[in-house]
Amino acid sequence: MPRGRPRKNPDDASAPKKTTKARKAKAATATLGFEQQMFLAADKLRKNLEPSDYKHVALGLIFLRYISTAFEARHAELMLDDPAAAEDPDEYLAENIFWVPETARWSHLRDNARSSGIGKLIDEAMLAIEKANPEQLKGVLPKDYGRPALDSLMLGELIDLISDIGMGDTDEKARDVLGRVYEYFLGGFAGAEGKRGGEFYTPSSVVRTLVSMLEPYKGRVYDPCCGSGGMFVQSERFVETHGGKLGDIAIYGQESNHTTWRLARMNLAVRGIGADIRWNNEGSFLRDELKDLRFDYILANPPFNVSDWWNASLEEDPRWQYGKPPAGNANYAWLQHILWHLAPDGTAGVVLANGSMSSNQNSEGDIRRRMVEADIVDCMVALPGQLFYSTQIPACLWFLTRTKNPKGWRDRRGEMLFIDARKLGTMVDRTRRELTDEDVARIADTYHAWRGEQDAAPYEDVPGFCKSVTLDEVEQHGFVLTPGRYVGAEEVEEDSVPFTERFAALEKTLKEQFAQGEELNAKITASLKLIVQKESV
User: Fold this and answer.
1) Cβ(481)–Cβ(507) below 8 Å
2) How far apart are CA 205 and CA 198, in angstroms?
3) What are phi and psi of 30, to 5 degrees?
4) pLDDT tens, 208-242?
5) Which residues are registered as beta bridge partners of 379?
6) Which residues have C-beta within 8 Å of that of residue 331, sequence separation ≥ 6?
């Protein structure tokens, strides 16, 4: 399979043409930060509505605008070629476009945005779209816009705001802009919700790191706890950015939170991505919906250190190939569940809490030892802090593989790569850090070079950042997988000034500081004498 380097940011886009109104220009211009401007404008409209509630209001309307834009563009094409075909739903499904009934089209809602009954009209539109597209959208769309708690004036203003997105662009460009806005809103609401937001959203820079390292060009991609589907969106974007096309990868996932599952379905639909995303209350451990399938790439950000996952029915589960995980922590259950689903040539990237690299509680140390001895742990990456909305717990990336001697790459059996990326990243606000494109490329390129990919640069250990280690060395460290134990200290550039000169300069500075100190002491003593004299008069 050919490989390539990430050479450009897939989020980059040229600015669309401005509309005639200044307000629309500000909202619609796709320059750096326009998504943030749009989010802040929308956030002002929510007033006293909680972010956890408002996100469904805003995201549902963006979704409706997106599919309506795609539908109306195709409808206009068909009207020119064959007006009769324009009313045939199959003509749209063949192009992966949802059929949108007339009363559900955005133009209809926009024209009635200032109506006191706009909430009811939106609910009816959502119901009509689900009815017209039951296989893809049944039970997915929010349908409670008509409730009294939602101010109709606020809904009208939000429709006006969303109507401005991509105005003046081509239909294809407008849909791309809408997709970017949808993705940014997911992150914005995750930040606004704090800990709860982390349940449905993995920070984009973390997802890009996983995707850039695994390079999912073709094959099956799986996420057993998929949240809002960010792993899948980035995977498809990676394929398209590197010369592939939508559909080169087949997407599978599972999610136990029904509300989050709905967000994932909408997120993928906005991108025109087909996927088999399953939902059930039990979750991937108790009810593995895809237990007979194996996957080429697995990307996952399981909830950290889950303590209430165990059930007696899991006692003899065949997934526990390296040991039964402790009932009080699901970290090693997730790793083994993922390994169970990995194809013979598959690779996986998993986000876990840092404790997973060194914990010896219960059976965790023994499971980790067996995994290392089985030579399935490929690479460990220590991440910088403050990357996540939901927790300040330091995190790491595990990379697992079924084979370390694939065709076309070097034989790395008996070796592991450790990357310490804790010093990377840039603070984007007071509490949160992001990995830059350069940071992501540095981590990914190091991994590709170490694997010996055909178009990668030669690999070299970099003190303080990365080191290739034998399994014997890992054993000497008690099978602890913390990168800091292996990469050593960063090299410090040697000072070219001779020691005698440096010592003389330091001695001179010290003497000057002593003299200044004596002078200051004399002034203080004199001042104290004056105070005593005044008090005694």
Assistant:
1) no
2) 14
3) -90, 55
4) 999 999 999 899 999 999 988 889 988 988 888 88
5) 399, 417
6) 302, 304, 305, 325, 352, 353, 355, 356, 359, 364
Q: Whole-prediction pTM value?
A: 0.79
DSSP string, 151-217: -HHHHHHHHHHHHTTTTTS-HHHHHHHHHHHHHHHHHHHHHHHGGGGGGT---HHHHHHHHHHH---
CA-CA-CA-CA dihedral for 84, 85, 88, 92, to nearest 10? -150
Contact 195, 72 (CB under 8 A): no
DSSP letters spanning 417-482: EEEE-TT--EESSSS-EE--HHHHHHHHHHHHHHHT-TTSPPP--BTTTEEEEEHHHHHHTTT---
Burial class (CB in 10 A: 0-12, 13-18, 19+), 391: middle
Identify the structural domains of the chain with CATH numbers, from first to last. 32-193 (1.20.1260.30), 204-485 (3.40.50.150)
d(CA 198, CA 250): 25
Name which of 153, 151, 145 is nearest 126 in CA terms.
145
Q: Of all helices (H) and strands (E), which one includes residue 345?
A: strand 342-353
Task: Quick: pLDDT tens for 32-91.
Answer: 367 888 888 888 888 888 888 898 999 999 999 999 998 999 999 999 988 999 989 899
Rounded distance between C-alpha atoms, residue 341 and residue 487, angstroms = 31
- Rg (C-alpha) for the chain, rounded Å, is 28
| Inter-helix orientation angle 258-270/51-81, to 10° | 30
Tell me, what amino acid is at 271? R
